[in-house]
Amino acid sequence: MNSRIIPISLAISDKEQRKLFEQMIAGNPMVRLVEDDAEEMGVLIYEPGDSVEEDMPHVIQALETGQAEDVYLVGNNADPEILIRAMRSGIREFIKYPVDENDFRAAIIRTAMRSSLGADEGEKGKIFTVLGSKSGMGVTSLAVNLASILNARNPGSTILVDLRRPGGETPYFLDLKYEYTWGELVEDISRLDGIYLRSVVAEHESGLHVLPGPSGFERPDPHSLFLILEQLRSNYEHVIVDTAYPHDEVLPKEVEQADSILIALQLSLPCLARTSRLMDSIRSQDPDSERRMKLVANRVAKNSTIGVSEAMEVLDREIVWVIPEDSDSSLSAINQGTPLVLAYPKSPATKAIQGMVTTLVPVPKKAKKGFSLPFASFFKKKNKDDDHLAGASL
After folding, report:
1. Which of 18, 45, 307, 335 lies in the 20 to 30 Å Cα band around 297?
2. From start to end of the chain, where are the E strands?
3. For the chain, which residues score pLDDT lower than 70?
4. Cβ neighbours of residue 365 under 8 Å, at least 6 residues apart?
5. InterPro entries per the record (predicted)?
6. Within 10 Å of residue 91's Cβ, how many Cβ atoms?
7. pLDDT tens digits for 310-326?
8. d(CA 110, CA 102)
9. Could you give the 3-state DSSP secondary structure of residue 299?
């Protein structure tokens, strides 16, 4: 983990809570308080108040341009609309009043870990999340075969992550024996680094790395999953995630962080209706997901009563890839514990998945750097003596 001292900027109106933060900062060797007009903002601790609608665009822009390294929202209550807006913009921390020193320290540790991941040199890997609107779409089979093809290009550079709950099946598709799961990472997330990650990962005989899911274990909490996925992205060229969409939760991190969201479907009216609702749900929580969602018609039979063109009209969206049905070969491969693309390289389904991979993996693009903005007036406003107590709206 990065050992540097993290600068902290306070935009807090509540004088009592501001004083508590100042005391905690003074007693924490990992952080230091900076003046409101300092060139570096570091971690911005922001308390939404009556002017939240005016402030939030500036706060978000500070984060997006890199002027703020991280942003913590603080207050008495968490307004759901503000939290959703904050999460979509990359703000991951909310600390409730009265401030608890352990909560503050934990948030600082998470920031330090994210900073350490971001400081790694070289291009970061890509995350491809595969999911469907319901079970039975062939999601696991598709994820396993995508990972196998990518791994064949450069063995050891691809990892397959099993996030299906209550228990995934990727080990069965690979006849894989394993000792550890991502449960170990969640239970000791403070140790997470490249070395610890590699000690937990299982390796298939093909060189494909796999991070299985524990049996009967709940999904990782959002903070832990974010850190795990970013650590995977820093250690592998390709990260393939096999998952199911949890409709009763906020946008899952494996969807939010994915470079490509691959939605598997089959050509039936109930499936098309569920797929449409799934896309609407993702789109409503993350507008940027529109460009990252790609549809895959899987297990398409020759005599299907609904054609691909008809399905695209129903969904009002292009189906990018079509994987033909090859049930005999697919079932045989599963029973062998061997990916279809390795067991039956001449299968029509194998050729279709190979074509999918050829067009899917993009040329890495370098991240754009941000620019600085003046925030002096913003901090002055938060520190006025006659300000109302903020945080009530959060």
Report:
1. 335
2. 6-11, 31-33, 42-46, 68-75, 93-96, 126-132, 158-162, 202-203, 209-211, 238-242, 260-265, 293-300, 319-324
3. 1-4, 39, 115-123, 247-249, 362-394
4. none
5. P-loop_NTPase, ParA/MinD_ATPase
6. 22
7. 999 999 999 999 999 99
8. 12
9. strand
**Do 6-119 and 126-360 agree at the fold level?**
yes
According to DSSP, the β-strands at 158-162 and 42-46 are unpaired
CA distance 146 to 208: 11
* CB-neighbour burial class of residue 304 (10 A; exposed 0-12, middle 13-18, buried 19+): middle
pLDDT of residue 362: 59
Q: Could you report the per-residue pLDDT of 72-87, keeping only the tens digit for each?
A: 999 988 788 888 888 8
What is the domain partition of the chain in residue ranges? 6-119, 126-360
For residue 17, what pLDDT is reported? 93
CATH fold for the domain made of 6-119 = Rossmann fold (3.40.50)
Instruction: Using the structure block, give the residue that is written with the tokens 């997901």.
Output: 289
Integer Cα distance of 241 and 243 in angstroms:
6
